[in-house]
């Protein structure tokens, strides 16, 4: 493996950070690397908001489920799917923008994911750690209001960045055969492969928690999918001008 692949395979979520500062020039370079990611039809539909204000950080931490690292991390970024600049572009040419299409929501959201992963890789390449914060969507309306987001913009997730103050193990991933199919979707062996993987994950959790967590991957997923998954999201997104057709 080359160094890039080794870096990708060594990713861990970091939730404890040292007090070592991250310079604005570093943040700028990471976000510039994000801009270099692939973008559907050159739409460039991701906007990043760096949240420095202490009060806003504390509110975001609370709304994300009281995740302390949101307010403690040296840097906190919010990645937003943004079709507002496209409306501005249409207005510049006196053209009516046809918005609200599901395809536009998908492409803008995918743009954000690709952008953010480039930011993550750039930061990790310089020795920083990070954790994504999907919990911002718990109170997404409050987040959007606090960040003064206009219509056609929504916060997809946040990211804590800083120098790691912990050294967790790399979490094992699904067997390659489960996620890489050849020519067609064949899941005939997936149940057996997932069962084997469950043992690996159970051992990982036991080691990480000193035996306090005894759970497999399939148990975790089956438990999660018996609960509602932020049912407020559809009405919120429609109120922002997304997913109307």
TrEMBL record:
InterPro entries: Flavin_OxRdtase_Frp (IPR016446), Nitroreductase (IPR029479), Nitroreductase-like (IPR000415). It comes from the Bacteria. Residues 10-163 form the Nitroreductase domain. Pfam families: Nitroreductase. Keywords: Flavoprotein, FMN, NADP, Oxidoreductase. GO terms for molecular function: oxidoreductase activity. CDD domains: NfsA-like (cd02146). NCBIfam families: PRK10765.1. Belongs to the flavin oxidoreductase frp family. This is Hypothetical NADPH-flavin oxidoreductase. It comes from Neptuniibacter caesariensis. The lineage of its organism: Bacteria, Pseudomonadati, Pseudomonadota, Gammaproteobacteria, Oceanospirillales.
């Amino acid at each position: 493996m080359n160094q890039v692949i080794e870096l990708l395979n060594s990713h861990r979520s970091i939730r404890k950070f040292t007090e070592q500062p991250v310079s604005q020039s570093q943040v700028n370079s990471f976000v510039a690397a994000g801009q270099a990611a692939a973008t559907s039809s050159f739409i460039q539909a991701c906007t990043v908001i760096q949240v420095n204000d202490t009060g806003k950080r504390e509110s975001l931490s609370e709304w994300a489920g009281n995740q302390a690292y949101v307010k403690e991390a040296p840097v906190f970024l919010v990645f937003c799917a943004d079709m507002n600049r496209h409306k501005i572009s249409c207005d510049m040419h006196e053209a009516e923008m046809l918005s609200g299409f599901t395809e536009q929501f998908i492409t803008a959201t995918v743009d954000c994911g690709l952008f953010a992963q480039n930011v993550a890789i750039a930061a990790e390449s310089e020795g920083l750690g990070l954790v994504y914060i999907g919990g911002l969507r718990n109170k997404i309306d409050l987040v959007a209001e606090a960040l003064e987001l206009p219509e056609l913009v929504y916060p997809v997730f946040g990211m804590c960045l800083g120098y790691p103050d912990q050294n967790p193990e790399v979490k094992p991933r699904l067997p390659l055969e489960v996620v890489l199919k050849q020519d067609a979707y064949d899941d005939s062996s997936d149940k057996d492969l997932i069962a084997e993987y469950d043992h690996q994950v159970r051992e990982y959790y036991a080691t990480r928690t000193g035996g306090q967590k005894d759970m497999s991957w399939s148990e975790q997923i089956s438990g999660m999918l018996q609960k509602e998954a932020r049912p407020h999201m559809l009405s919120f997104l429609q109120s922002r001008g997304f997913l109307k057709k």
